[in-house]
């Protein structure tokens, strides 16, 4: 492993580390990743013993952060990906960190990366949004056996989740393809149906569309993280709240109000049992290091599965808060703060589009009728003339406005999260 690196955020050095010399230099605490923002501490240089003790802790935290960026070996086809890239399948923190450093830790969902001191590379040279992708779709998505060694400059190494997936480039945009191994691709079809239901609301979300790859039914979505913005997992913000001895849920409601509360409500409506703390999050301005809005909702391939199976999972743990709170209890907790608009015209169109899911959509409709925080609910067999719900791009543009220099400011009255 290379002895020393800079942790960069775009072209801004955040900290310097030297593993052999047990040295860590912090340049800007406010730009540290949220998961370690309040854990990396400046050691007292007057006390040599304490200096090396603290830096030892700092270096372990950095290695943990690097290791956390690498795909899980539990992911479908992960071991084949490692074989194709000639990478060790040792699942230790040390090995995973080494893999991260070897590919610079570059991800499509944030702008952190590791730079060697003698490198002249800039963010533009490594940013996967614009760089040629070493596509390994046959391996990562279709699960075929690797026959050649691939270029390590591929986003698969830093893409999380357990289902089979792969990034591809189409023209100037990057898309994620995702599938599953269930009979009739139920998880993939549930993700697409959930996306169409979300289209009937004003909740910002990633749009999933159905496509095919070889013998697979696949859902396809566009990368939702714009330039100069980083996605931050809820888990990392929870850790930061814990370090600051503040209640995560209270801070999120105070800061983001309905946009945070709507998550619990829509998960109850969709019976989503997989909203764990890495399956939702926030968007961070790379210039200030502050959270500016709730990220568009994504990953719905375990939503509606209970309806497919004609079960009720309301008493299943929601995972949203990392606590022993059920989906229904989470809904009850946040419903008073939620506000969702529902487009009846689009709902009718969705029902007409999916006659085979008539019973599933009926169950969804019954849960919608239960709620007290949804405005303009459709009256059965009566089409009300509502304005079209905003698209994902329109809602996101409402939160973030590009200004000179490509940075972002808020337009809807939220103040960036400054607690941390």
Account of the protein in words:
This protein has 420 residues and is α+β, with helices and mostly antiparallel strands. Helix content is 32%, strand content 17%. The protein has 14 helices and 15 strands. The chain has helices at 48-68, 78-84, 93-102, 123-126, 137-140, 186-198, 234-243, 248-256, 258-270, 305-308, 327-334, 344-353, 358-370, 392-399, and strands spanning 4-9, 12-18, 23-26, 112-115, 165-170, 173-178, 209-213, 216-222, 229-233, 281-285, 291-294, 340-341, 374-375, 400-403, 407-410. A four-stranded antiparallel beta sheet has the order 3-2-1-4, with helices on one face. It has a four-stranded antiparallel beta sheet with strand order 5-6-8-7, with helices on one face. The protein has a three-stranded antiparallel beta sheet with strand order 9-10-11.
């Amino acid at each position: 492993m290379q002895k020393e690196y800079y942790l960069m955020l775009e072209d801004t050095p955040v900290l310097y580390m030297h593993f052999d010399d047990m040295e860590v230099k912090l340049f800007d605490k406010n730009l540290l990743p949220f998961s370690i923002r309040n854990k990396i501490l400046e050691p007292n240089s007057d006390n040599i013993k304490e200096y090396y003790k603290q830096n030892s802790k700092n270096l372990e935290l950095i290695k943990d952060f690097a290791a956390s960026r690498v795909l899980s070996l539990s992911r479908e086809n992960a071991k084949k990906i490692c074989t194709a890239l000639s990478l060790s399948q040792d699942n230790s923190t040390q090995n995973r960190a080494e893999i991260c450093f070897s590919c610079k830790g570059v991800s499509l969902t944030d702008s952190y990366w590791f730079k060697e001191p003698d490198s002249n590379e800039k963010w533009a040279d490594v940013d996967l949004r614009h760089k040629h992708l070493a596509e390994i779709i046959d391996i990562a998505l279709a699960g075929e056996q690797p026959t050649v060694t691939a270029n390590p400059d591929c986003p698969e190494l830093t893409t999380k989740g357990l289902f089979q997936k792969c990034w591809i480039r189409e023209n100037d945009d990057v898309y994620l393809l995702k599938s599953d191994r269930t009979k009739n691709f139920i998880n993939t079809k549930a993700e697409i149906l959930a996306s169409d239901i979300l289209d009937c609301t004003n909740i910002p979300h990633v749009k999933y569309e159905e496509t095919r790859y070889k013998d697979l039914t696949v859902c396809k979505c566009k990368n939702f993280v714009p330039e100069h913005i980083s996605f931050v997992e809820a888990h990392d913000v929870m850790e930061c709240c814990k370090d600051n001895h503040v209640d995560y849920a209270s801070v999120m409601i105070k800061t983001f109000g309905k946009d945070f509360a709507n998550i619990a409500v829509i998960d109850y409506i969709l019976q989503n049992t997989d909203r764990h703390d890495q399956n939702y999050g926030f968007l961070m301005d790379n210039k200030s290091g502050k959270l500016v809005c709730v990220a568009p909702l994504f990953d719905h391939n375990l939503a509606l599965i209970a309806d497919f199976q004609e079960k009720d999972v309301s008493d299943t743990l929601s995972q949203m808060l990392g606590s022993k709170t059920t989906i229904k209890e989470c809904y009850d907790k946040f419903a008073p703060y939620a506000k969702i608009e529902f487009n009846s015209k689009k709902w009718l169109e969705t029902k007409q589009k999916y006659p085979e899911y008539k019973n599933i959509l009926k169950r969804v409709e019954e849960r919608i009728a239960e709620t007290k925080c949804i405005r303009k609910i459709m009256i059965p067999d009566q089409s009300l003339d509502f304005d079209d719900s905003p698209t994902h791009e329109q809602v996101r543009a409402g939160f973030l406005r590009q200004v000179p220099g490509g940075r972002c400011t808020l337009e809807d009255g939220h103040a960036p999260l400054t607690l941390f």
